Amino acid sequence: MTRSTTIFSNLALAALFLGSTGLHAHETDSQSALIADAENAMTDGDYIAGVNGYLAAANAGDSIETARQAALVAFEFGFDKLAVEATDRWVELSDGAQEAQQYHAYSVLRTGDVDRAIELMEALLADESSTDVCEHAEETLARDAR
Questions:
Q1: Is 91 exposed, middle or buried (0-12, 13-18, 19+ CB in 10 A)?
Q2: Separation CA 133–CA 4 (nearest Å)
Q3: How confident is the model at residue 15 (pLDDT cuts 50, 70, 90)?
Q4: Treating both helix axes as pointing N-terminal to C-terminal, what angle do 64-76 and 47-60 enclose, rounded to 10 degrees?
Q5: To the nearest 10°, the Cα dihedral for 127, 16, 83, 132?
Q6: What is the pLDDT of residues 52-101, one digit of tens each?
Q7: How many other CB atoms are found less than 10 A from the CB of residue 20?
Q8: Do 69 and 20 form a contact (C-beta atoms < 8 A)?
Q9: DSSP structure string for 30-68
Q10: In angstroms, how far is the first alpha carbon of the chain from the final one?
Protein backbone atom coordinates (compact mmCIF):
# COMPACT_ATOMS: atom_id res chain seq x y z
CA MET A 1 0.00 0.00 0.00
CA THR A 2 1.42 3.38 -0.97
CA ARG A 3 1.75 6.23 1.49
CA SER A 4 -1.01 8.25 -0.19
CA THR A 5 -3.33 5.22 -0.15
CA THR A 6 -2.59 4.70 3.54
CA ILE A 7 -3.31 8.35 4.30
CA PHE A 8 -6.54 8.19 2.30
CA SER A 9 -7.55 4.96 4.06
CA ASN A 10 -6.91 6.50 7.46
CA LEU A 11 -8.98 9.56 6.55
CA ALA A 12 -11.80 7.34 5.32
CA LEU A 13 -11.64 5.34 8.54
CA ALA A 14 -11.73 8.49 10.63
CA ALA A 15 -14.86 9.60 8.79
CA LEU A 16 -16.51 6.20 9.29
CA PHE A 17 -15.59 6.01 12.96
CA LEU A 18 -16.53 9.58 13.83
CA GLY A 19 -19.08 9.25 16.53
CA SER A 20 -18.83 5.46 16.65
CA THR A 21 -17.43 5.20 20.15
CA GLY A 22 -19.72 4.64 23.09
CA LEU A 23 -22.89 2.60 23.28
CA HIS A 24 -25.53 3.01 20.60
CA ALA A 25 -29.11 2.80 21.84
CA HIS A 26 -29.38 -0.95 21.21
CA GLU A 27 -25.77 -1.94 21.77
CA THR A 28 -24.61 -4.27 24.52
CA ASP A 29 -21.34 -4.18 26.45
CA SER A 30 -20.13 -7.22 24.48
CA GLN A 31 -20.88 -5.40 21.23
CA SER A 32 -18.95 -2.39 22.47
CA ALA A 33 -15.97 -4.62 23.23
CA LEU A 34 -16.16 -6.16 19.75
CA ILE A 35 -16.34 -2.70 18.19
CA ALA A 36 -13.37 -1.49 20.24
CA ASP A 37 -11.37 -4.52 19.08
CA ALA A 38 -12.45 -3.86 15.47
CA GLU A 39 -11.41 -0.22 15.69
CA ASN A 40 -8.04 -1.19 17.17
CA ALA A 41 -7.48 -3.69 14.36
CA MET A 42 -8.37 -1.08 11.75
CA THR A 43 -6.04 1.44 13.35
CA ASP A 44 -3.27 -1.19 13.25
CA GLY A 45 -3.93 -1.76 9.54
CA ASP A 46 -5.47 -5.21 10.01
CA TYR A 47 -8.53 -4.39 7.95
CA ILE A 48 -9.86 -7.92 7.58
CA ALA A 49 -9.80 -8.40 11.36
CA GLY A 50 -11.50 -5.04 11.77
CA VAL A 51 -14.27 -5.89 9.32
CA ASN A 52 -14.75 -9.29 10.95
CA GLY A 53 -14.96 -7.58 14.34
CA TYR A 54 -17.64 -5.18 13.15
CA LEU A 55 -19.56 -8.07 11.59
CA ALA A 56 -19.34 -10.04 14.85
CA ALA A 57 -20.67 -7.01 16.71
CA ALA A 58 -23.52 -6.63 14.22
CA ASN A 59 -24.44 -10.29 14.61
CA ALA A 60 -24.22 -10.13 18.42
CA GLY A 61 -27.06 -7.67 18.87
CA ASP A 62 -29.79 -5.62 17.28
CA SER A 63 -28.13 -2.26 16.67
CA ILE A 64 -28.97 -1.01 13.19
CA GLU A 65 -26.09 1.49 13.38
CA THR A 66 -23.59 -1.28 14.21
CA ALA A 67 -24.84 -3.35 11.27
CA ARG A 68 -24.63 -0.29 9.01
CA GLN A 69 -21.09 0.42 10.15
CA ALA A 70 -20.05 -3.19 9.53
CA ALA A 71 -21.55 -3.08 6.05
CA LEU A 72 -20.00 0.24 5.05
CA VAL A 73 -16.53 -0.67 6.29
CA ALA A 74 -16.64 -4.05 4.52
CA PHE A 75 -17.95 -2.40 1.35
CA GLU A 76 -15.39 0.43 1.34
CA PHE A 77 -12.47 -1.93 1.86
CA GLY A 78 -13.66 -4.29 -0.86
CA PHE A 79 -14.30 -7.34 1.32
CA ASP A 80 -17.25 -8.23 -0.86
CA LYS A 81 -18.37 -11.53 0.70
CA LEU A 82 -18.22 -9.96 4.15
CA ALA A 83 -20.09 -6.95 2.79
CA VAL A 84 -22.87 -9.27 1.61
CA GLU A 85 -23.10 -10.78 5.11
CA ALA A 86 -23.03 -7.37 6.77
CA THR A 87 -25.57 -5.80 4.42
CA ASP A 88 -27.83 -8.80 4.84
CA ARG A 89 -27.76 -8.21 8.61
CA TRP A 90 -28.35 -4.48 8.08
CA VAL A 91 -31.36 -5.15 5.83
CA GLU A 92 -32.74 -7.57 8.43
CA LEU A 93 -32.35 -5.18 11.38
CA SER A 94 -33.55 -2.10 9.51
CA ASP A 95 -36.69 -3.79 8.19
CA GLY A 96 -35.50 -3.35 4.62
CA ALA A 97 -34.29 0.25 4.70
CA GLN A 98 -33.61 1.52 1.18
CA GLU A 99 -29.95 2.39 1.81
CA ALA A 100 -29.33 -1.07 3.29
CA GLN A 101 -30.98 -2.76 0.31
CA GLN A 102 -28.94 -0.68 -2.13
CA TYR A 103 -25.64 -1.62 -0.52
CA HIS A 104 -26.78 -5.23 -0.33
CA ALA A 105 -27.47 -5.28 -4.08
CA TYR A 106 -24.13 -3.62 -4.88
CA SER A 107 -22.27 -6.04 -2.62
CA VAL A 108 -23.94 -9.04 -4.24
CA LEU A 109 -23.04 -7.63 -7.66
CA ARG A 110 -19.40 -7.24 -6.61
CA THR A 111 -19.25 -10.94 -5.73
CA GLY A 112 -20.23 -11.74 -9.31
CA ASP A 113 -23.74 -12.97 -8.58
CA VAL A 114 -25.27 -10.83 -11.31
CA ASP A 115 -28.63 -12.64 -11.41
CA ARG A 116 -29.20 -12.16 -7.67
CA ALA A 117 -28.07 -8.51 -7.88
CA ILE A 118 -30.57 -7.89 -10.69
CA GLU A 119 -33.33 -9.44 -8.56
CA LEU A 120 -32.42 -7.17 -5.65
CA MET A 121 -32.28 -4.06 -7.83
CA GLU A 122 -35.58 -4.91 -9.51
CA ALA A 123 -37.20 -5.21 -6.09
CA LEU A 124 -35.84 -1.79 -5.19
CA LEU A 125 -37.05 -0.27 -8.45
CA ALA A 126 -40.51 -1.77 -7.93
CA ASP A 127 -40.78 0.04 -4.59
CA GLU A 128 -42.42 3.39 -5.32
CA SER A 129 -40.72 4.97 -2.31
CA SER A 130 -37.28 4.22 -3.83
CA THR A 131 -36.90 7.49 -5.71
CA ASP A 132 -33.13 7.82 -5.91
CA VAL A 133 -32.11 4.18 -6.45
CA CYS A 134 -30.95 4.60 -10.06
CA GLU A 135 -29.01 7.78 -9.34
CA HIS A 136 -27.29 6.28 -6.30
CA ALA A 137 -26.56 3.04 -8.16
CA GLU A 138 -24.99 4.94 -11.04
CA GLU A 139 -22.74 6.93 -8.67
CA THR A 140 -21.65 3.83 -6.72
CA LEU A 141 -20.99 1.67 -9.77
CA ALA A 142 -19.10 4.52 -11.50
CA ARG A 143 -16.89 4.91 -8.43
CA ASP A 144 -16.23 1.15 -8.39
CA ALA A 145 -15.25 1.22 -12.06
CA ARG A 146 -12.39 3.65 -11.35
A1: buried
A2: 32
A3: very low
A4: 160
A5: 20
A6: 999 999 999 999 999 999 999 999 999 999 999 999 999 999 998 999 99
A7: 16
A8: yes
A9: HHHHHHHHHHHHHHTT-HHHHHHHHHHHHHHS--HHHHH
A10: 17
Distance CA 108, CA 81 (A): 8
CA proximity to 106, closest of 95, 94, 121: 121
Judge whether 13 and 42 are in contact, CB under 8 Å: yes
DSSP letter, residue 95: T
pTM score, whole prediction: 0.71
- Cα–Cα distance between 13 and 11 in angstroms, integer? 5
Residues 6+ apart with CB under 8 A from 88: 104
